[in-house]
Design a protein that fits this description.
The protein has 162 residues and is an alpha+beta fold. Helices cover 26% and strands 24% of the residues. GO terms for molecular function: deaminase activity.
Length: 162
């Protein structure tokens, strides 16, 4: 019998698809929208969607930018400091929701200058498990919602229930 190794992202997607087969428009209890107090309170969206998958929860984070919990920019014109604040925000949200950075299965990274990728990687590697890193996408973009923001990162995590 041939055995296949399935990655964390594939498992997460399979679990999501299985859980959604029983989801109906009227069953709102399967998804909760959260705004942890450890990050800035957004206007018009939620920082995280928490999806009950039975024995675990899928956490889908909105794109995080380098704003502290009071909404102040951290690291003007400094990719390394901005990236660090973004990962601090991701870590804070996951901690508030009962998880850790090791629970991340996917990162979506949007940068204005891909030539600064090494700074991004140096910071990222202080926050993620580099032995089993999450799936990741990096996209260079021309503009984010504010001129002084250099990076935005969205994350998906799977947190086992205790």
């Amino acid at each position: 019998m041939k055995r296949y190794k399935i990655g964390r992202t594939a498992v997460a997607l399979i679990l999501l698809l299985l859980s959604l087969t029983s989801f109906s428009q009227t069953d709102a209890s399967i998804v909760e929208f959260k705004n942890p107090s450890s990050v800035v309170n957004p206007k018009g969206y939620s920082q995280a969607a928490v999806i009950d998958l039975g024995n675990c929860q899928m956490i889908i984070l909105s794109g995080q930018v380098p704003l502290d919990k009071n909404g102040n920019l951290v690291g003007k014109n400094d990719m390394e400091k901005q990236t660090e604040q973004v990962f601090v925000n991701i870590k804070n949200i996951l901690t508030d929701l009962g998880g850790t950075m090791d629970n991340i299965v996917k990162l979506g990274i949007y940068v204005k200058d891909v030539s600064q990728i090494q700074s991004l990687r140096n910071v990222r590697d202080r926050f993620i498990n580099t032995q089993t890193p999450p799936a990741s996408t990096l996209v260079e973009i021309t503009k984010l919602f504010r001129e002084d923001i250099l990076i935005e990162i969205e994350a998906t995590a799977i947190i086992p229930k205790k």
